[in-house]
Amino acid sequence: MMSIGLLAIAVGMNNHAREGPGATGKAANPVLNCLEWFGGIAEFFFQMVRSATRTPFEGRELLRQMDEIGAKSLPLVALAGAAIGVVLSLHTRDSLIHFGAESILPALIILSLIKETGPIITALVVSGRVGAGIGAELGSMKVTEQIEAIEASAVDPRKYLAATRVLACMLMLPLLTIVADFSGILTGWLANELVEPMSFKLFLNRGLESTDIRDLAPSTLKTVVFGFIIGLIGCYQGMGARGGTEGVGRASTSAVVLASLFVILADVVMVRLIITVFG
User: Fold this and answer.
1) CA 120 to CA 105: how far, in whole Å?
2) Of 200, 207, 193, 188, the residue nearest 89 (C-alpha)
3) Which of the listed residues 48, 93, 223, 268 has the most CB atoms within 10 Å of its CB?
4) Quick one: DSSP state of residue 58?
5) Where are the alpha helices (H) located in the chain, listed in sequence order?
C-alpha cells in the first residue's frame, strides 16, 4: 500500500508538471492520474520501439550515451560498491562471531553482493545520476523546443533521443554491476584483512566455493530490466516536461522518484522469479 501511495504522489506530481498549476481538478484524482501515466508510458514505449527498428540506426549516438551513462557513472558505482563491501564485512563479522561461524564471512560477503546488494545498489545509484540527467536534459530540450526542431529536420526524436538512452542503460547496467560487485568484494577482504589476515586468493576461494553460475548470471542480467526502467522513465518524464525551467526541475525529480520506485518493485518480482526458476 505504501508503494502504491508513493506511486500516486509521484504520478500526480508528473501530471501537475504537464498540465500546469491550474489543473487542480484532474490532479486531485490519483487513480485517474495513475492510469493516465501508465497509458502514456506504454504508448511512448511502443512508439519508441517502432521508431528504433527503422533504418538508419543511431550507432554514434548510442556509443556516446554508453560513454555518458557507463564510463561517467563508473567512479560513483565503484565507490558505492566499495562502501557496501566494508559495511557488510564490519557488521556481519560481529554477528558471526557470536555463533562461532566467522569462517563463512567470505561466502556471506560475496553471495550478498553478487545476488542482491550489488545489483540493487548499482541500479539506485545509476537511477539517481542518470535518471535525473536524462529527465533534465530532455526536459530542457522540450521546453526550449529543440525536440520540435529535431522533428522538423526529419529525425525521429524517439529514436535519436529516447531509444539510444534506453538501450545504453540496458547495456551498461550489467557491466556497472560487475564493477560494484568486485569493488565490494575487494574492500570486504581489506576490512577483514585488518582483523584476520587472509590472502585475497584464499578469501575468494572460500567465498566462491559455494557459488556457481546460477548465482551470478541471473542476478547480474536482471539489471538489464533495471536499466530499461531507468532509461524509459527518464526519457518519458523529460520529453513530457511542461512549464519552463520549473517543469524541467519537476520532470527531473519525478524521473528519479519513479525510476527508483519501479526498480525496487521490479527487484521484488524478479527475486521471486529467479528463486522459482533457478532454485
Assistant:
1) 21
2) 188
3) 223
4) -
5) 2-19, 24-27, 30-52, 59-69, 74-98, 105-112, 118-126, 132-143, 146-152, 157, 164-195, 200-208, 213-221, 223-239, 244-278
DSSP code at position 241: -
Hey, is 127 helix, strand or coil? helix
Q: Which residues neighbour 182 within 8 Å (Cβ) at sequence distance 6 or greater?
A: 81
Length of the chain: 279
First and final C-alpha spacing in the chain: 29
Cell of residue 228, nine digits: 530499461
C-alpha cell at 257: 522518484
Tell me how far apart the alpha carbons of residues 94 and 260 are, in angstroms, rounded to a whole number.
Answer: 31
Domain boundaries defined on the chain:
59-278
Cell 529514436 found at: 159
DSSP 13: H
Residue 139 near residue 238, CB atoms below 8 Å: yes
Judged by DSSP in three states, 157 sits in helix
How far, in Å, CA of 41 to CA of 99, rounded? 50
pLDDT at 13: 45
Residues 6+ apart with CB under 8 A from 43: none
**Model confidence, pTM:** 0.85
Write out pLDDT tens, residues 24-57.
Answer: 444 458 888 888 999 999 999 999 999 888 888 8
**Whole-number Å distance between alpha carbons of 59 and 78:** 27
pLDDT number for residue 3: 47
Cell of 46: 511502443
Question: Distance of CA 28 to CAs 165, 236, 254, Å?
Answer: 33, 22, 17
Closest C-alpha to 267, from 133, 123, 154: 123
Whether a cis peptide bond, with omega within 30° of 0, leads into 56 is yes
